[in-house]
Amino acid sequence: MADLLNIGLSGLSSNKTQLSVTGHNITNVNTPGYSRQDAVQGTRVPQFSGAGFIGSGTTLVDIRRTYSEFLTTQVRTSTALSSDVEAYRSQIEQLDSLLAGSTTGITPSLQDFFSSLQTAAEDPSNGPARQLVLSQAEGLSRRFNTVYDRINEQNSFINKQMSAVTDQVNRLAGSIASYNDAIAKASATGQAPNDLLDARDEAVRQLSTFVGVTVVPQDDNSMNVFVGSGQPLVVGNTASRLEAVAGKGDPNRLEIEFVSGASRQGITTQLSGGELGGLIRYRSETLDPTLNSLGRLALSVSDQINTQLGEGVDLKGQVGSALFGDFNSPELAALRVKSYGSNTSNAQPLLNITDTSILTTSDYRLEFDGTNYTARRLSDNQAMAVTENPPGTLSFTDSGGRDQGFQIVVGTPAPAAGDTFELQPTRRGAESISTVLDQADQLGFAAPVRAVNGALDANGNITGSNRGTGAISQPDLTSAGSSPIDLTAIKGALPVGLIYNGAGGFENPPGTPVPGLTLVGGGTFQPGQKNTYELDMGGGNVVTFSVSGRPENGDTFSIDFNSGGVSDNRNALKLADLQNKQTIGIDPSVTGSTGLSFTDGYGDLVERVGTLTAQARQDSDATSSILKQATDNRDSLSGVSLDEEAANLIKFEQYYNASAQVIQVARSLFDTLIGAFR
Fold this sequence. Notes:
It holds the Pfam family flgK_1st_1. This is Flagellar hook-associated protein 1. Residues 342-425 form the Flagellar hook-associated protein 1 D2-like domain. InterPro entries: Flag_bb_rod_N, Flg_bb/hook_C_dom, FlgK, FlgK_D2-like, FlgK_helical. One of its GO terms (molecular function) is structural molecule activity. By secondary structure, the protein is α+β, with helices and mostly antiparallel strands. It contains twelve helices and 30 strands. Strand 15 (373-377) and strand 16 (382-388) form a beta hairpin. Helix 2 (69-100) runs antiparallel to helix 11 (598-638) and helix 3 (107-122) runs antiparallel to helix 10 (570-577). The longest helix has 61 residues, at 127-187. The radius of gyration is 41 Å and the shape is elongated. The two termini are 18 Å apart.
């Protein structure tokens, strides 16, 4: 009877444990990361009898969790990838809406500004039309400023998010280290602490939502966690930290440092995956290039408009004033150069823009070893050739001989050996653009030179009339020695009279060729055709005009300073034409290289961001599907099924009752046996 009783008791005990494990599964059905557990039974050592081995009951062998390292790793990897893409997508969608919006983008303001120029060109002496140009210029500069501010707010948000995420990473790293310690101690008994293992796996999964990690299991059931290119975030029961600190090259951009004990290592560019990886990727691949592209456009608009205005004259006969502020002011030039925190000198070089049409959208890094300067373009990591001429002024060209469109003025104090500088030629262009002209009559809408049929007296009045049908077009200033132009030099070279000699040439005085006058294409004047001439007035100032018809011998054509250009709109038309003129991204090393217009330049930026946004949405859908599939695969193995557990409850309850019945039978037999001896 004792054997039967022990068998029943063993079954009762084992099934009680089975019911406890089943109940534990059911109550943890909604616990994140929980893996279903099973109680594994085995037979006890049988007893030998003359008839053979007789079973002695059951025993509990193990409480085992249903777990796959492969499926768990898939979930962890998919989580890191999905979080990375989601963080990137949430940011770029905001940027895309800002740039492409009909009320928030740059295009509407650009169109309004050039429309006002077209209106003013139709009646250049109209005061309200001129005033509208100033108003629209102010609107355009403010639109650039506003878009820059909105994009820069994203940078501030990313900084805050990076700080918050690193705090979460450090918290979870500490939890994982604590779990490692508890698991290693519990595993010393020879059995795996299932619930602790599940809790640690869930902590690692949560960690992967913030940053991509690599997990390496250890013999004592602990696991080491690595980030970046192998930096040990958790080793056993010891956790290191990540810290978001001000960037060495740009304090406005936080960088990530790996902190282990007293040592620090910058790992920003090495991190990938998770929310942190997505934010860093968005900032480097999209945010910074967008700010640089927008800044380049603002610099080009400011430069081209101011340059063209400086080649015209206003209603008072003076050189046209600049409409936008000087982007090479010492204050702005200094802001384009960031000194690394490790620099030993107080040097503050200045970065001056020399040619906005050939600027790239990249940042640069400049280093000084005490003797030589070296530079690298960060967008493609290409080394730049640094030329110092004159002393203290540095110019940069790439491997193709392309000038980068800016120069560095070293100044004093001079850099020290080991100093490093971050160069940002276009980063603040959209922030710094401003409208400075407030007098509409100072807009240089007129051309500086004019042409008339006939000779001029000392007061600029026409004397006499020509006998032939020859006519001279209004001259075009095709080459300005400087902008703003030197009116004194131009006035000194004018007026110039062209006296037709009847033999295919112009003279003044008769018998003497006109200095600086050349017929484009060579040869002699062809009556009845359009003949194009260039007149070099000295100082780099060249005007182009044409003479057509059939002039008679002695007919005179005069070119003079346009002192009364009230109704002259030639320079205003050139200003309006800048809307479609290719002035951005020209490669000077390629003959005939064409760039982009203002509208196309901004359109190219919007298209690039739009393409990246569409790609991010596709990536988001794909990674979400991959994560769901990986999670479903894991749950199909490790997840708790309430239907299955309910069936187990019934089964183990029946087992329990049956084991109890065995005990009852053993008791009844024992009582019968005792009764037989009474």
